[in-house]
Amino acid sequence: MVHWTNFLPLLGGIFSSVVVAAEISAQVVPGAYIVELEDNHDSASFYSTLGNTDVSVKHRMKLDYTLFKGTSFQLKNVSDVDAAAKRIANMAMVKQMWPVRVFKVPTVDVIWKGSDKGMAESALQKRQSANTSDTFSTHVMTQVDKLRAEGVTGQGVKIAVIDTGVDYNHPALGGCFGSGCLVSYGTDLVGDNYDGFNTPVPDPDPHDSCEGHGTHVSGIIAAQANPFGFTGAAPGVTLGAYRVFGCGGSAGNDVLIAAYNEAYEDGSDIITASIGGASGWTEDPWAVAVQRIVEAGVPCTVSAGNDGAEGIFYASTAANGKKVTAIASVDNTQSPMVLLNASYATSNSSTENFGWTEGSPNTWENVSLPLWAVNYNVNDTANGCDPYPDSTPDLSGYIVLIRRGSCTFVQKATNAAAKGAKYILFYNNVPGLISVSAAVTGIQGVGMVTAEQGAEWITLLAGGATVTVNIIDPASSPKYVTSEVNTASGGFLSTYTSWGPTWEVDVKPQLAAPGGLILSTYPLALGGYAVISGTSMACPLTAAVYALVAKVRGTFDPATIENLLSATSNPNLFHDGATAYPYLAPVAQQGSGLIQAYDAAHATTLLSVSSLSFNDTDHFIETTNFTIRNLGSEEVTYSLSNVVAATAYTLDPASIHPSVFPNELVPGSASLAFSEDKVTVPAGGLVAVTVSPTAPAGLEASRLPVYSGYIALNGTNGDSLSLPYLGVKGSLHDATVLDADFTYLTKSTDNDLNPVPANQTFTIPATNGTAPNGTVYPAFVISLALGSSLIRADVVPQNPLANATTVLGARTLGNVFGFPARYMPRGGWATEWDGTLEDGSYAPAGTYTLLIRALKIFGDASVKEEYETTSTVPFTIRYQ
Ligand SMILES: *[C@@H]1O[C@H](CO)[C@@H](O)[C@H](O)[C@H]1NC(C)=O
Ligand SMILES: *[C@@H]1O[C@H](CO)[C@@H](O)[C@H](O)[C@H]1NC(C)=O
Ligand SMILES: *[C@@H]1O[C@H](CO)[C@@H](O)[C@H](O)[C@H]1NC(C)=O
Ligand SMILES: *[C@@H]1O[C@H](CO)[C@@H](O)[C@H](O)[C@H]1NC(C)=O
Ligand SMILES: *[C@@H]1O[C@H](CO)[C@@H](O)[C@H](O)[C@H]1NC(C)=O
Ligand SMILES: *[C@@H]1O[C@H](CO)[C@@H](O)[C@H](O)[C@H]1NC(C)=O
Ligand SMILES: *[C@@H]1O[C@H](CO)[C@@H](O)[C@H](O)[C@H]1NC(C)=O
Ligand SMILES: *[C@@H]1O[C@H](CO)[C@@H](O)[C@H](O)[C@H]1NC(C)=O
Ligand SMILES: *[C@@H]1O[C@H](CO)[C@@H](O)[C@H](O)[C@H]1NC(C)=O
Ligand SMILES: *[C@@H]1O[C@H](CO)[C@@H](O)[C@H](O)[C@H]1NC(C)=O
Which sequence ranges form a coiled-coil region, renumbered to this chain (predicted)? Predict the structure, then answer.
């Protein structure tokens, strides 16, 4: 049996700075497979044919769909799992077979969650009046407000959300499930106990009973008016909820393929999923399944992924599928905050209100005490980090006011508690507010106020005033929504947004939308509302915009809407999380840039593509073309120009490994020659433009610079469009994919994955034996500097008389069970080997090396020279 272990946490230790700590986030379920069947077959005929053999399987998911006919199953008999798998793969009715992989619930940053209890009445009333203008910042950023002002709500459009389910009991999400409800259709494909590895237990109820992710996503699309004063971007749509995660688990790609096809067959107009895992291969089965649905006319938006830290070339599946619309994230221009209302008074003034955020511990119970501060310096960078002076009074009768910064909240709280403090209000040293945690003996309540509020109080204290703060128990305190301008990163690409392109230079992502700092609905049991950041939040907003644009234009054609949104988007400057730079962010990070719903809905110019890839140097596209259609009633002349974005080096200098974020960015992009620089298109007419790029000069091609930019089309009718393009200078084929130095033999019991020296003997259980505790199996680590579509692990006998065959020029007993591995992203993983071979038999006792071969990008799998190769040290296996 094989164990696929993600050794990300260990990489740091072993590889230190050598290797980017990339992870294989999609794990394989041992013995579980998806088959796609030939026409005229379905899962029933598959299982009945199988019933006549001695292969025993447990059914997982029926995949009897118009666009995907097949099934998934778990092989029951672990002792001959691979032989059985091979026999199934060879059945005449089986077209394709893939291992089941699982994807985790996306890791998003939950900034705040809570309830609407105590929400200010004013907000409640404001939202009740019909047709109040939409001022929700993410809607203003994307021009959703302008479409809403025209009365466009996506009325009647069916959007399927593939996620953790939806808490449809939420009053802002309709309060019910089924016909006539906001969440009008969908299903639970898995059940609460599904974890990705066990068998799904479907039921018809897609309630989001434990996670929350899908409820937040759904509110971004369709939330109805609520006490927080926002709505979803398309509150007129009806939602389909397809639940693919149980509680706390992962989702298999068989479940995801089933969910997509059910959503398609249930008549969804648009399907969205904020789910993914590192890949970069359009051939991934889930990506292929989604591509087919797009080709059948239903737009599919998928979040680009939250792995921006990994740098360029880290596209995620299924977003990386051909024709699938991958959505990048931009940070909100506003930082929404939900504050508790409290008041303070000075000796000689009236009472004033202020807002604060509760922290942990949280036992405030209507506290009314004067403030005390260790000093009155609002610029103190390490306020309260040292023990307080002997002159400090007994602080049990005060609320201690401490500035954030330098040392931990716990250290600050410990120093205050040493002088008897029970309550602490921190004041921030950056914009916004967070929920502070400082569990320290003696401290009953902590909270935070803004930097401005802290400064105001310090000024009063410094002036000799007594400032008495009255705090109402947070459990019953009134609260209100406010927001601060996000001066740090508003409108720029979120640093966490994953970068494309794919390994075959398909442009990814396509579009960008606000995903950082988003207020939306949350399950009632978890408070009801939350502020969350992730591409998971950008994706549903884009799906909602698809609905609005589709309603205005009267078409759901995926290419038409994607091309319109791409051409009308606003690209932005590169921002590294702290600072903006004077050049556009690469297309590999932002795609088209921030979508503009109104411009897309009303544009009278239609381009035939959403982006152009010039491929790499080996496959350089010398000339390509696109068309401009003028839907207006007057002739328009478009001036074409080339607006360059920063070029990003993929590899660190003199390294086979990609750089982590931010990749080194350099000026210099392609120059583009157009068939004409001014293109006149008659009313209702169509004109083709050819584009002949010249890759930028003077770059280190061996480091795989990715250049990009936008073809700007400025029309005499005032239209200003931009078409993203991207290319790679250098040869992806010649780039090193296998990190041979970190591909080696280890042992299954070593969590640190240290290499083992040559000539070790492993005594392992016999074919049908049970492994006693502490059995040490041989194991091996494979490290990929770049993605590889095919990785072999050949068992090479050292005995010249062994019955080996020759595969691709090497003597082998066959692959280790579970190999060849296909369509792997960059990163590393470890595999344990119990002696089972690819064909299900066991390798005889003997001495072996494992020959690891990774196919180069664009390599021909049938040619041995197209693989990069390394061998483990020899080792011996004996059976007990
Ligand atoms: C596994 O396969 C063997 C040989 O085909 C058979 O004897 C055994 O009963 C099977 N075990 C299970 C659990 O199916
Ligand atoms: C809202 O505004 C739109 C567009 O101006 C209008 O068609 C619609 O009737 C208005 N709805 C209400 C309830 O006033
Ligand atoms: C704190 O810093 C700000 C900005 O640098 C400055 O304007 C202010 O005078 C400083 N205040 C004190 C008390 O040093
Ligand atoms: C780049 O060229 C290769 C080889 O022809 C091809 O397989 C790949 O699809 C091309 N990429 C794009 C985006 O066209
Ligand atoms: C446009 O490009 C396509 C291939 O991408 C080619 O088949 C077609 O002939 C080209 N058309 C023009 C007008 O160059
Ligand atoms: C088109 O507009 C863009 C953006 O305003 C500008 O950068 C570019 O120079 C313009 N191109 C032409 C040819 O006017
Ligand atoms: C391992 O065994 C082989 C064959 O006996 C021998 O040639 C080699 O030197 C050994 N390697 C080590 C490191 O002991
Ligand atoms: C266990 O394996 C041994 C050797 O591979 C074989 O002789 C024996 O019949 C097997 N026993 C069972 C119960 O399958
Ligand atoms: C093996 O280890 C597991 C977990 O530590 C323990 O529960 C089990 O009793 C052990 N079995 C034997 C045979 O020692
Ligand atoms: C090779 O296979 C033959 C026939 O199955 C067998 O008799 C022989 O022992 C095998 N040789 C080795 C070295 O395993």
Answer: none
Distance 55 CA to ligand 1 centre (A): 9
Length of the chain: 880
Q: Whose CA is nearest to atom 5 of ligand 1?
A: 54
Q: Among the atoms of ligand 10, which is closest to the Cα of residue 801?
A: 13
Whole-angstrom CA distances from 501 to 205, 294, 725 are: 38, 20, 11
Q: Which tens digit of pLDDT belongs to each residue from 411-461?
A: 999 999 999 999 999 999 987 788 888 999 999 999 999 999 999 999 999
Answer whether 330's CB lies under 8 Å from 137's CB.
Answer: no
Instruction: Report CA(771)–ligand 9 centroid distance (Å).
Output: 11
* Ligand 4 atom with minimal separation from the 501 CA: 13
Domains and CATH numbers, the chain: 2-18+739-879 (2.60.40), 26-104 (3.30.70.80), 140-333+486-601 (3.40.50.200), 335-482 (3.50.30.30), 604-735 (2.60.40.10)
Residues tagged active-site = 163, 213, 536
Which residues does ligand 7 sit against, CB inside 6 Å? 757-759, 874
Mean pLDDT of 370-381: 94
Amino acid at 19: V
| Distance from Cα 621 to the centre of ligand 4, integer Å | 9
Q: Which ligand is nearest to the CA of 718?
A: 6
Helix or strand run (H / E) with residue 253: helix 253-265
Ramachandran sector of residue 770 (left: φ over 0; alpha: ψ -120 to 50; beta: rest): beta
Verdict on whether the full-model pTM lies above 0.85: yes
CA angle 864, 313, 566 (to 5 degrees): 125
Ligand 4 mutation target, pool 612, 619, 855, most atoms within 8 A of CB: 619
Contacts of 543 (CB under 8 A, 6+ apart): 159, 161, 221, 270, 271, 272, 299, 301
User: Which ligand has an atom closest to residue 458 CA?
Assistant: 3
Q: How many CB atoms sit inside 10 A of residue 488's CB?
A: 15
Neighbours of 517 (CB within 10 A): 27
User: pLDDT tens digits for 690-719?
Assistant: 999 999 999 999 999 999 999 999 999 999
